[in-house]
Each structure stands twice: as C-alpha cells, then as structure tokens.
Design brief:
The chain is mainly α. It contains six helices and no strands.
C-alpha cells in the first residue's frame, strides 16, 4: 500500500534537477503559485488547501495530493474535513478517483506523526 511513497526520492531528484537547471522558470512558477494561493481572493487558508486536495484527487496527481493533504493538516484541517472533501470528489469526478484519494489520505495519516487528530 505504500507503493506511491516509493517514488518520492525520484520526484525530489527531478525537482532538484529543475531547480538546478532552470531556476528562473522554477522561481517564476513558485512565485505565481504563492500569489494565487495567498492573494488570489477571499478564501481562508484551510479552504484553499481543501480545494487543492480535491483538485489533486480529480487530476489523479498522487504526489500533489500527498503534498496538499500534508499542507491541509499543517494549517489545521482535520482528518474528517479532508475525508469529506475527498468524498465530494466522487459525484463530479468519479468513484475511483475518490477511492484512490481516500487510500492516499489513509496512508499519509499512517505515516504522519501529527495524524493523531
């Protein structure tokens, strides 16, 4: 069940490659993402991270979903809030996407010390 965590080293190496070889592009991307997240509108931080969880589940981007779940936990979202968001994915994006999202959430919570919420 932890198979999706196996590629984190590879993803990290790829990100380091991008930063080392295309730092200006990466910095622009990071700046854009930060601007949209923090200054794009009136949504509070918890809501923004919960939306990103849903979007990542819909896109089936496991690395982003893992990252966004961790960020949601760090900003104070409960397991129940994150799980609810993932359940909301099913009617619009599909049951399999929601189920994969729940699996990833459960695995993240098992591997995260602050998951005792």
């Amino acid at each position: 069940m932890n198979d999706y965590f196996d590629n984190l080293d590879e993803i990290e190496k790829n990100l380091k490659y991008l930063v080392a070889n295309h730092s200006e592009i990466y910095q622009a991307y990071e700046h854009f993402g930060k601007l949209v997240h923090e200054k794009g509108g009136p949504l509070d931080e918890k809501t923004r991270w919960l939306i990103k969880v849903a979007l990542s589940a819909d896109c089936q981007n496991e690395y982003s979903l893992t990252t966004h779940i961790l960020k949601a936990i760090q900003c104070g979202c409960s397991k129940e809030e994150i799980e609810h968001v993932l359940l909301l994915v099913a009617p619009t994006s599909g049951f399999p996407k929601m189920m994969r999202g729940l699996l990833i959430l459960r695995n993240v919570l098992e591997q995260t010390p602050q998951s005792s919420q």
